[in-house]
Each structure stands twice: as C-alpha cells, then as structure tokens.
Specification:
Its main location: membrane. The strands form 13 sheets. This protein has a four-stranded mixed β-sheet, with no helix packed on it. The chain has five helices and 38 strands. Helix content is 14%, strand content 37%.
Length: 537
C-alpha cells in the first residue's frame, strides 16, 4: 500500500505520460507553402497536413485556422481546401498575390502547436486593359500647334500586368491628323496642321492591346479633340468675294470695292457706300479681335474723314468742280488692335455726278409679248410683227434718254419665278420647255437708276401661242373676234348711211336745177351758176 506521497507521484506520472502521448498527436507538422490559381472552383485542394493526430479519430485533436485570410480555407480531415464559391471567386487582383493564415492544433483546449499557412495565388489572364478615364477626356488643342509635337498622352492599365500597345484606328474619321511613334508610350503626335476655320472638332479611336498574351485582349476609347482658334488670319472686309478654294475647302476671298455717288452740292454728310456699310472682321472668327480703321490715301486734305472704330466716312466739304475731280479713290486699312501688323486694305470710290433731275419713265404702261410653244429651253419674248420685245426706260437726264446705269428686274411671283429673266438691255428670256399653250401671264418690270435709286414700273402681258399659230402683226389682229366684228359692223353701217345721204342730196340738187331755166342755161354755157346769176343782175 502506497503512502499518500507515493500515490501523488504515481498519479503525476500517469498524467504526465497521458499529456505526452496526447501532445504528440499535434507534433510532426510544419509550415505549409502552396500555390493555387485564381478563379479556381470551390473545394480546390491546397495541401495535406503532416501532423501525427487525426482530427476525426478517437483520440481527436482540434485544428483551427485563424488569421487575415483564414476564411479562404477550410479543413477536411488532414486536408486544407479553398473556400470559394460562384459569388466569391478568388481574384489575384483583389486579394493580392499571397493568402496567409495560421493553423493551430489544440488538445483539451490547450494549444499544442501552431503552423503558418502561406498560399501563393497564381495569375491568370482574366482582365482586359482599361483606359484611365482622365487620359481620354475631351482635349483642346490650338490650331497653331506645331506638326510632329506631342499633343496628348493616353494611358491604359491591365490588372494582370500585361504589356500594352496603343494603336490608332485608321478607320476613325480624323485619324489622319495623328500618329503614335512609340506604341508602348501612348504619346499621340500631331501629323498634319490644324485649321479652326476648316474643322473645329476631330474624332479618333485608340486601341489598347495586350501584346504579351495569347488572348490579345484589347479595349478601345473614342476621343474628341476640340481645335481652338489661333490668331493666324488677317482681317477681311465684307462682303467676301470668293475667288478660289483649297483642298481643305478654305475659301479665299478678295476685298470688295465700295462705291458711293455724290453731287457738287453735297457736303457735311455721311457717305452711304454700296455694298455697305464699310466693315471688316477678324479672320479668326472665335477671337473677333477689335479692329481700327484709317484712310491710307485719298483723303484729299481731310475732305474725307473716317471713324476709326465704325469705319463711317464723312465728307466735310463740297467738291468745287466735278469735271476736274470726277472720282476720288480712298485706300482704307483695317488693322488688329492687338497686332497692327495684321491688317487688310480695301478701296472706296467716291464718284461726283451731275444732279439728277428726272426720274426714269417707260413710254407705255403695258407691253405686249408673245411666245410660240417650243421644246427649246430658252426663247426671246417677241412682240407684234415677230420682233424682239425691248423694254427700255427713258431718263431725260441724258441727251439720248439712255441711262447706262439703268438696271432692269422682274418682280418675283410664285407663277413666274424661274420661268422668266430680263437682261440689262431690257430683253425678256423665257424657259419655253416649262410653259404650256394658252398660258398668259402678267409680268411687272422694274427699272432702277442705280445712281439715284429712282425706279419706274411697267407691265408685260405675255401670251404663249401654239406651234402653228402665227404672231399677230398689229394690235388689231389681237382684238377679241366679237369686238372686231362689232367694229366692222359699225363701220359698214356708217358707210351705208353716208352713201344713202349722198344719193339723196344729189337727187334734191338735180330737182332744183330742173326747176330754174337760168340754171339750165348756165350748164349749157359751162359757167358756174353763181357767175350767171350775177350777170342777170
């Protein structure tokens, strides 16, 4: 029989032996280093445990996973597996390249050992390149930007770390303006000059392409490049008179010649030029730089003065003799306020004329015209006798009545627009192939004295005849048949009545002569009755 002290030592020995055996179940393990590819399915094998004990055995031990990424694993006996799902996919770009956890082995809730679990996530090419939003925002480039200079840079990133090459889609509308010399840099270079007046907005498409993968994933971005106006054009007097157009559809203009007419009596007056008013604009439309006006030559000792802001020209004193100075030629300059070297020059003519006393007049209020039906695209309008119809206004300010500055026009109407045209000589041309037989139109002709602005008006009655119908020779033939018949009947009745009266008068006279013997004697003598009667007295 053991004493108490001996019993205590025996129990201690038993307990110590028990714990040693039990603790040995957590021994034999080691840190775990493994790899797994991203996007793997649920339950993917990670590693087997090398500890002695079996968590599912009779003398079981308890294993526990802890740490930052412990929720990505679960234990199945002595095996560690990936804890993923359809909604929870392992993504290297999100979770990082390594998953770390701690494996703790418990026995009777006492920690016996602890091992590290380190799993490297292997990359898969599961991401496309993506442009950084700030690099593909709308761009603003001055039209003065030099060719071959870098105008902007695009940047795309690939979450898989793949190499990216940038390519301009040559099918995009304005790809010809740009190029990329270094494909991996994303630097876009201007390849040809910009012109704000021709094109203010450019569009192009750029691709970012993986070049080190078999998938060659790519993405595209549409870029808008706004062209900003630069001060590269000179002022332009208006209205613009186009003379040519280059390959960029840029219109080249010449400055107009401004004209005004005055008389010897005019002075201290504002001149109204035609085309007017005198005005210039900055060739760079969006800049619209303020301009200054001045008279370079022809001011004739300040006879003509110009407002340097409005370009209004005033004549300060009258012209003494129009025969000595029939015309003044002014050279007007418009220059930019911020850069006087950018300027343009136009000509203004001041013509001194005799005073206008008579307005233009037509010699009749209505003209008669005829057109014979034809398939010809154009025909001159004729008048009676198949003569060309000339419509001319008389101006008594001229000796021969012909004003060389008379301008003829037709008042447009819905029925005549595009069908008739009048020349400066007063000849009317009709588009015959667009007219129909028996059409009858009334045109209004306006004659305007371009110097005085006075006008005269007349009407033209135009009738379209059939092909076989002749043009009347006189206005009588053009009368209505009923009216002509009535007139003929009246004339015939008048002739019959006159003949009846003459016969009656002759009979009465013969009767009187038979009643007078002296009368019969006078007839026999061959003398006048009055003479015979005087002899009898």
């Amino acid at each position: 029989m053991l004493n108490p002290w001996g019993l205590f030592l025996c129990q201690l020995a038993i307990n110590t032996s028990y714990h040693v055996i039990k603790a040995s179940l957590c021994l034999g393990g080691s840190d775990i280093f493994a790899t797994v590819s991203e996007n793997r399915p649920v339950g993917e094998f990670i590693a087997n445990l090398s500890i002695v004990g079996d968590p599912t055995g009779i003398n079981s031990i308890r294993l526990c996973l802890t740490g930052e990424n412990a929720n990505w694993f679960y234990l199945e006996g002595r095996t560690i597996r990936l804890n993923s799902s359809i909604l929870r996919v392992l993504d290297r770009e999100r979770q990082g390249s390594v998953l770390m956890a701690a494996l703790t082995c418990y026995e009777d809730d006492i920690i016996q050992s602890e091992y590290r679990v380190m799993v490297e996530i292997l990359n898969e090419n599961d991401n496309k390149p993506r442009f950084l939003e700030k690099t593909i925002q709308p761009r603003y480039i001055s039209e003065l930007t030099a060719v071959n200079s870098v105008v902007f840079t695009v940047k795309a990133i690939d979450a898989d770390g793949d190499t990216i090459t940038y390519i301009i889609d040559r099918a995009s509308p304005d790809a010809s303006y740009f190029r990329i010399d270094l494909p991996n840099s994303g630097k876009v270079i201007l390849d040809k000059p910009l012109d704000y007046e021709t094109k203010t907005k450019l569009q192009l498409v750029i691709y970012a392409v993986e070049t080190n993968t078999k998938e060659w994933y790519n993405t595209s971005a549409s870029l808008i490049v706004n062209v900003e106006d630069g001060d590269d054009h000179y002022p332009q007097f208006l209205p613009c008179t186009p003379i040519s157009q280059d390959h960029n559809h840029t219109v080249v203009c010449t400055n107009p010649i401004y004209v005004v007419n005055i008389t010897e009596k005019d002075q201290d007056m504002l001149l109204n030029f035609s085309p007017g008013p005198i005005h210039a604009e900055d060739g760079d439309r969006s800049l619209d730089t303020p301009l200054l006006y001045s008279i370079l030559s022809g001011a004739d000792k300040n006879r003509f003065q110009i407002d340097n802001q409005t370009a209004e020209i005033t004549m300060t004193k009258r012209v003494e003799n129009r025969h000595m100075t029939p015309i003044f030629r002014l050279r007007i300059m418009a220059s930019q306020l911020n850069d006087p070297k950018k300027y343009s020059v136009a000509t203004a003519l001041v013509r001194v004329l005799a005073e206008n006393r008579f307005p233009p007049l037509f010699n009749r209020t209505t003209y008669k015209g005829f057109i014979i039906e034809s398939s010809s695209p154009a025909t001159l309008v004729s008048t009676y006798g198949n003569e060309v119809l000339f419509i001319q206004a008389i101006d008594q300010d001229f000796v021969d009545g012909v004003n060389p500055k008379m301008h003829y026009s037709l008042q447009p109407t819905r029925a005549t627009t595009g069908l008739y045209h009048i020349t400066e000589e007063g000849v009317i041309i009709a588009k015959t192939d667009r007219l129909r037989s028996f059409d009858r139109l009334i045109l209004e002709v306006v004659a305007m004295d371009e110097e005085s602005g006075e006008v005269a008006k007349a009407s033209v009655d135009i009738e379209l005849l059939q092909r076989s119908q002749p043009i009347p020779w006189t206005s009588f033939r053009d009368m209505d048949v009923r009216i002509a018949g009535g007139i003929m009947g009246g004339i015939l009745l008048l002739l019959v009545t006159t003949l009846f009266l003459l016969i009656r008068w002759a009979k009465r006279r013969r009767r009187r002569q038979r009643q007078k013997p002296s009368g019969r004697g006078a007839v026999a003598l061959g003398k006048h009755l009055k003479v015979i009667e005087d002899d009898l007295w």
